[in-house]
Fold this protein.
Amino acid sequence: MATIHIDNRPYPVKEGENLLQQCLSLGFNLPYFCWHPALGSVGACRQCAIKQFKNEEDKHGKIVMACMTPATDGARISIEDPEAREFRASIIEWLMINHPHDCPVCDEGGECHLQDMTVMTGHTYRRYRGRKRTFHNQNLGPLVNHEMNRCIQCYRCTRFYRDYAGGRDFDALVLRNEVYFGRHQDGTLESEFSGNLVEVCPTGVFTDKSLKQHYTRKWDFQTAPSVCVHCGLGCNTIPGERYGTLRRIHNRFNGAVNGYFLCDRGRYGYDFVNSERRIRRPALRNNRSEPLQPISKGEAVQFLAELLANGTRIIGIGSPRASIEANFALRTLVGPERFYAGVSEQDGRLLASMLDILGQGPARSPSLHEVELADAVLVLGEDVTNTAPLLALALRQSIRRQPQKMAEKMHIPHWNDHAVRAAVQQEQGPLFIAAIADTKLDDVATEMFRGVPDDLARLGFAVAHAIDPRAPPVSDLPDTMRTLADTIAKALKAAGRPLVVSGMGCANVAVIEAAASVAWALCNTGHAAELCFAVPECNSLGAAMIGGAHLELAFETVLGTAAYTGIAADTVIILENDLYHRADAAAVDRFLAAARNVVVIDHISHATSARADVVLPAGTFAETDGTLVNNEGRAQRFFQVFVPQGDIQESWRWAQDLITAAGADKDDPWLNLDQVTAACAASIPGLQPILRAAPTANFRIGGQKVPRQPHRYSGRTAMLANIDVHEPEPPEDPDAPLSFSMEGYPNHPPPALNPRFWAPGWNSVQALNKFQDEVGGALTGGDPGVRLIEPLPAGKVGYFTNIPSAFERRAGEWLVVPLRHIFGTEELSALAPALAELAAKPYLALNPDDAAELGLATGDDSQLQLQRNPGQKYRLPVRLEPGLQRGSAGLPVGLPVLAGIAVPAWGKVTGVGQETPS
Amino acid sequence: METPLTRSIAPEKAPPDLAQYEKAGGYAALRKALRMAPGDVTAAVKEANLRGRGGAGFPTAQKWSFVPMGDDAPHPKYFICNADEMEPGTFKDRLLLEGDPHQLIEGMIVSAYAVQADVGYIFLRWAYKLAAQRLEQAIAEAYHRGYLGRNIAGSSYSLELHLHVSAGRYMCGEETALLNALEGKRANPRAKPPYPQVSGLWGKPTVVNNVETLCCVPHIVNKGAAWFKNLSRSGDGGTKLYGVSGRVKKPGLWELPMGTPIREILEEHAGGMRNGYRFRGLLPGGASTDFMIADHLDVAMDFDSMQAAGSRLGTGTMIILDDRTCPVGMLHNLEHFFAQESCGWCTPCWSGLSWVEQILKGLEDGKGEASDLERLQSHARLLSPGHTFCALAPGAAEPLQSGLKYFRDDFDRHIREKRCPWRS
């Protein structure tokens, strides 16, 4: 700690950090544009000018940029100095010369950093008489709107897009007052993180194109703290609602998880909530040849209660995309022994393996922020850009850790961004990527390895053995793999914070065990390694912790083929789950046909709900509350954003209604979410800490709830006047300490309950500064979420020994391996129109040499038959993937027509019209 | 009067080739330097009080002294000659580049040796096509003769030298923007610190020196610091290439003792004003120096004297303003140049200069208002060193602020008469 004097008063600061960040952390309102806590300082906009004095005697001082000046002990600065104030006002005047006065029709209006800074500096009257410069706006695709005339040339966009996120199709072009920020020509932005431009841009150049479809000002949004449901990372979000539709997602800073950024799947996937395919009313059919008929909630509950009371043999199938509480409620309704996890046997094994490894082994699962701090990384088998996108963004930062030390040697402060980058140039820390096919992180990889899952696992085991000879050796290892394994081992051992990343992407337990072996070998030889697994869904780990037998066993139970369970069933309740995404279509068909009663509780209609006898409308993440466990093992609470219309309610409430209606012996029905959470925490081992994920519903500050509507929410008395001139009473919320109104505690709530970042004078997302003790650091009060899984000390667990043998090509057969896509693989986000436009189309990927042998070229139709089910033929256009190992074929699993296909699996590939080679 | 830098230069004639250059004593300094310790070369340059001829006048040896030396020093180190001569009115380096390329090359090798650089670049203005041709020829000769490449002249010192022809922007003359341009990036300047000597080209220790500066170095090594200091009429060592353009009888370029007074250059060498034109003022060292007027004609053209007189020596190539040229028009022309050449990085520069240019154009077009002069005054004040990211905008502010001071009446007339009085 050092002391500096700001306008003649002493303040404690962190020595060496830049003065802008320190002044903001101290609560001063010092305006800025180009500086960003995650992007560092570059000194371009000159907005944060202050006066610095040599000493107490120096009355003259000189103007310096706070962002470019390190805080040194005894420094004397002035923010209020008239010359500094005048200069800051001049900067705004210069910026406003060309800025259109279109705030009323600008999407940024009301949450515009440029507006805020203009007001803050006191620039009011226009003195410039000339013409404004104008630009051509580009079509940047369905996600980001471009309005270049508003640009103030702060360079944040290129610095995020290129320097931070590694994008290449966007740049600063031209010069002087005509710098153009865009692509070399119109076209969809290629980065998976393009949506962050919307929040990074301090004004309205880049705005949310999906929001444009149903535009609402920030002050008119009803918001709540939420958690993204489109992958397993659990990024914190702020969804915004107006008039019953969800209209956008903003980032909700969590220093331990997503920091300042979201991926495009997370930002734009929300629109499924407004989908035509939403289930909004209960429906029933008595005869499967007839369509489902809408019924009232009472009728539905009554019908099901009778079914349950009549001694129906019932089972429940949970879901990794439903909350802990929803899964637990269904489990309670049907009984633990009749509750099945909503994942396939294969996925269940992978999840169980990961849980065991994280809970029983010595390697700790890092938060996303800790991933950024890793200084040597092995990615084993996971295409993180497509399965856990923000993890890829974090890994892009991790490669900067080792070069950072070079810059430190030159006495360049870490925040002096361009100086650091100029000093380290192409230098980067070790990042090894072993994957099935080429990945979008390869551009920053130290070395890459391509292979089918078993070979990836073998590489991992070889690395483990190279680190710790006590780990079992891999037999018949080619020299090239051994050399690579030695290189990886050396780099990981030399690191201060080595990290191994893997996950379910390969659908292969050996890959997961190999990754664990590498991390454990490091731990066992005195290197504190971390182990990060990517999981596909928002509650994959949470649902796995609740347990339940796998889906195939549920099928067998109903089909009567499961001899050993002792359970018979003819009725199934399926929770928020399209089984056709989990298992082969034929198997699901047989199962649904065999079940006498199929009940689906979900918010989206799909192939499974289409075959149900009873459908109950559930709330999406935006209409319910609950707890999710992310890939780190961090339990996080998401809160209801708005009250849905009609009979939509929480899945757990449907379960509770059925329990009550069936007269099940239960003295104390759950009246709110907390009671479900508490019951779950009490009965499921390992879930006890979820109680601390967020304050309970009866939490109050000064007797008040936290308002979901901001203090400037407009039209409350008018917005429904066409229906009823009486202002409706705000709905009660028994489940959360948040209210559906403007009334409530007006100041900063605990971070887990914070529905928005907004502070006096700070209307934009930059208001976040006011919610952090140290700007850029954790939220005041601590980053939300509780870790459920901690490692066991080293040496308790033996190495895995089940090392697969090397892949051997088969004549006329292909090992079909899974490929993933950020847009399309995940079923909910694929329903958002903007993302549907970008979703991958089905294809079959072949190594170019294999394709040539088959006489197939890009775009040719191929036919795939899996050995397991030769009757099923898939006709797919060919795509060439040079990274694919020969003898394997890549299938983009999870895309609509390819959902539910379990791979790796052997199959035959032929050209359409060609005979199957004999 | 000795003219070491230009003694072998005969305009309209081919430059000396390697043999001719050697015959005239060339590369003797290199041989001598290679027998000296690198630090002794730097010491000689320091003793000679050589100051940078690019315009800023920073002591050359001091610049070199920040380069990390010794076994632990990072390598490769780079030595760069800034030959991106684009300062308006400035054509001094061109003479040296075209007229005696081996002098520059020898200066580069000796200087690079002083800081133990491994790779050299000559960053040349794109328009200097003849210079490019001659430099390439000379570099090839020097390689052939063993003055470049491995084990120069049988010593253990090695240096690779490359000619890089710039894509062409004024901004590239700023040494850190030059480094970015050389790396293939936007020619935006870099933050200082870190200085190029610590983190320069490709993040390695780098020195960037002007052509004329480097051309002085072999002579210092050859003849000694005392001789070099004695060439000068002031405290700054050596001779200086002084140029005059504008409506004088004999515009041109002369190598004269550092510190020659303005009047002497203007009247004795440039022959005074052309008949029918009267002197009104001058920009002493390119477009980014303050105007001087008749009161200043006896000021010695050296770094400190010019500073004391309220301007800068700059490149030492003066532009004369006569009484038949509109000072506002001249300023508009200059500020148009600066606004156009702004790299677009910092707000005061890209936005402020554009505004200045537009106000000046408005005055010229008869659309001026009284408040315009306040705007111009405030820009002259606000675009000062430290306020902006690099020296471009402060350079542009120098003629603006002094122009407002010395030619205020002309500005007022533009506003009062709603026209440019020089236009018919």
Q: What stands out?
A: Chain A touches chain B through 44 residues (CB under 8 Å). The domain at 2-97 of chain A is CATH 3.10.20.740 (Ubiquitin-like (UB roll)).
